[in-house]
Amino acid sequence: MNKKLSLPILVFISIFLSGCTPILWILNDTHQTVYKNTEVYSDNVRSAFEYKNASLSIDSANRTGDDYDFAPDGIGFVGDKNVYFVTSNGDVLLSLNNLMKAVPLRTVGNDKFIDINLIEPTRTYSNAEFSQYLNIRTRQGASSLTAMQKELLTQEKFTLKDGYYQRLVEIKGIIINKARLKGSFPNETALKDSYQVRFNTNKASQELDGGKLAFNVVMTPVTLTGDIILLPVYLLMMMNG
Fold first, then answer.
1. pLDDT value for 235
2. Which residues, other chains included, contact 172 with Cβ-Cβ below 8 Å and sequence gap of 6+?
3. What's the DSSP call for residue 237?
4. Rounded to the nearest 5 degrees, what angle is found at the Cα of 71, between the Cα atoms of 199 and 54?
5. Cα separation values, 226 from 137, 198, 220, Å
6. More confident residue, 171 or 179
7. For residues 163 and 141, is the Cβ–Cβ distance under 8 A?
8. Is the dihedral of CA 178, 184, 188, 193 positive or negative?
9. What pLDDT does 30 receive?
10. Helices (H) and strands (E) in the chain — how many of each?
């Protein structure tokens, strides 16, 4: 027998002898990868500060603040555990915090927490980074709001949708543990309310695919019957080959 053909023939024979049933379960894998939004930690954000021409001075780092890839002007929020430097739309968050003095607001999806998605840090000095679209709406329906409240919401780019004034805000930023930062924060002021913020990440896990499992269970008697009938035929083909 040609040596080049021996391996393919052996593989072909192995597949034949294994039968249809094992092939069914191999090809129609009943497991699937599922990504679940999992809570990493939560924090209570109580105050904010606006900084200009700032440089970071961080413990355990040998470089000066000027060496960091960090926006010199922006908005920071102080939690019990970390400081959150918002590099995109931090001023909008402060404006919405002020708006809440006149109009109660909430994020859509969870009334207790503000959910924010964590991403892998691209800056070596940050503990983590975040990026999230916040869908913010009024707690009361539009019919319960005064004309003055509606005017304020319109000025803040809210639009009427499904009976509520709503606005979508994209925020991005970096997270640095408070213990790593030296000194106090400039012009730190308390927010109207403290905010419970929950930070989440997508984690992959393997789960059974119910549809594929049911199909395999239903088809197994059929493939077993076929294996019993065809196995002698396979053997005869090999003997006569």
1. 47
2. 86, 87, 88, 89, 129, 130, 131
3. H
4. 105
5. 61, 55, 10
6. 171
7. yes
8. positive
9. 56
10. 5, 9
Cα(187)–Cα(205) distance, integer angstroms: 44
Q: In 40-146, which ranges are continuous DSSP H helix?
A: 90-99
Q: Alpha-carbon distance 106 to 112, whole Å?
A: 9
Q: Give the other-Cβ count within 10 Å of 28's Cβ.
A: 14
Contact (Cβ atoms closer than 8 angstroms) between residue 129 and residue 121: yes
CA–CA dist 127, 181 (Å, integer): 12
Q: How far is it, in rounded angstroms, from Cα 68 to Cα 57? A: 9
pLDDT > 90? residue 169:
yes
How does DSSP assign 117-185, residue by residue? EEE--SSTT-SEEEEEEEEEEESS-GGGS-HHHHHHHHHTT-EEETTEEEEEEEEEEEEEEGGGB-S--
Dist CA 233 CA 24 (whole Å): 20
Q: Are 99 and 105 in contact (CB under 8 A)?
A: yes
| CB 138 within 8 Å of CB 99 | no
Q: How far apart are the first and last CA of the chain?
A: 12
pLDDT tens digits, 196-236:
999 998 766 555 555 655 655 555 565 555 455 545 545 44
In this prediction, residues 150-171 reach a mean pLDDT of 96
